Amino acid sequence: MHKPFIRILYWLGFMALLTAIAMILWMVLSGGSQTTTSLKWLQFMQTIATFLLPSIIGAWLWSEDHRPFRWLRLTTTTHWSHYLLAVLIMLCAVPGINLLADLNSRVELPESLDFIEQIFKQQEEAAAALTERFLQADSVWGLLINIGLMALLPALSEEVSFRGTLQQILAQGKLKGQIHIAIWATAFIFSAIHMQFYGFIPRMLMGAMFGYIFVWTGTLWVPVLMHFANNGLAVVAYYLVGGSEESKNIADTFGAGDTWWIGVISIVITSLGLLIFYRRTHTR
């Protein structure tokens, strides 16, 4: 049961079982209602059942002293300046992410795969429509709920699942450069599971950034904070601009299109920030 492949099977099994239970429970309680409130409850239950609980259960089984939070690196910490620098890096990366997302969206599949491209576009449109429904808030209380549901909970759950669990399992091999393989394989899966082809590349690179920072600091709280900062910025920005199409376009394309040069500067600054972060953590 200590072999990485077996651990992954256990983890996926827990994930499938708990997700099914969450879906059944939601169906019983809501009757399959498609209202925004009902779908938010579904999102809440699925996030916990799919990402958070399976990892905690697995970590409890795999840790010798049955201390799952220690195994997940949630009981360790680092210098406060590392948290601050990590958030600044994440905020500086936003225009660069927009630029990469814009370039990613321009990728066209061969005509023979046109039907697949149409599926990708339909998934993107459906995901965008649902996200917009969730983001709508007409009060501060609604904003706080959205921050919890769409920023805090996903940041914690996904980092526990991907960096805390999957990356650590994959890093247990003995191949040369195993940690790099683990980081990039986890980042690839992290991006793929979102089922959004036109944002695949920037999401994978962001996942790799979280993975390296997790390794450099030894605590999962730093990538959790970066993930939260990225998601939280989007939630708050949507609330402040009021959801107007013009404002949303400005937010989503800042660093792309006519402002591509800002995206390039963002990527350069982010790269330098990561280099500084690496040197600071290794000096300490």
Alpha-beta classification: mainly alpha
> What is the helix content?
over 70%
Main beta sheet strand tally, sense and closure = none
Name the beta content range.
under 5%
Uncertain parts: none
- Give the helices and strands as they follow along the chain: HHHHHHHHHHH
What's the multimeric state? Answer: single chain
What is the number of helices?
Answer: 11
- Tell me the overall shape: globular
How many beta-strand elements?
0
Describe the structure in brief.
With 284 residues, this protein is mainly α. It has helices at 4-30, 36-62, 68-71, 80-105, 114-135, 140-170, 178-192, 200-217, 221-241, 245-253, 260-283. 79% of the residues lie in helices and 0% in strands.
Please specify the SSE layout and strand pairing.
Elements: H1 4-30, H2 36-62, H3 68-71, H4 80-105, H5 114-135, H6 140-170, H7 178-192, H8 200-217, H9 221-241, H10 245-253, H11 260-283
Characterization of this structure:
The chain is globular. The protein has two domains: 1-71, no CATH class; 76-283, no CATH class. α2 runs parallel beside α6 (140-170), α6 (140-170) runs antiparallel to α7 (178-192) and α8 (200-217) runs parallel beside α11. With 284 residues, the protein is an all-alpha fold. The longest helix is centred in the middle third of the chain and has 31 residues, at 140-170. The relative contact order is 0.14. The model has no long low-confidence stretch (mean pLDDT 90). It has helices at residues 4-30, 36-62, 68-71, 80-105, 114-135, 140-170, 178-192, 200-217, 221-241, 245-253, 260-283.
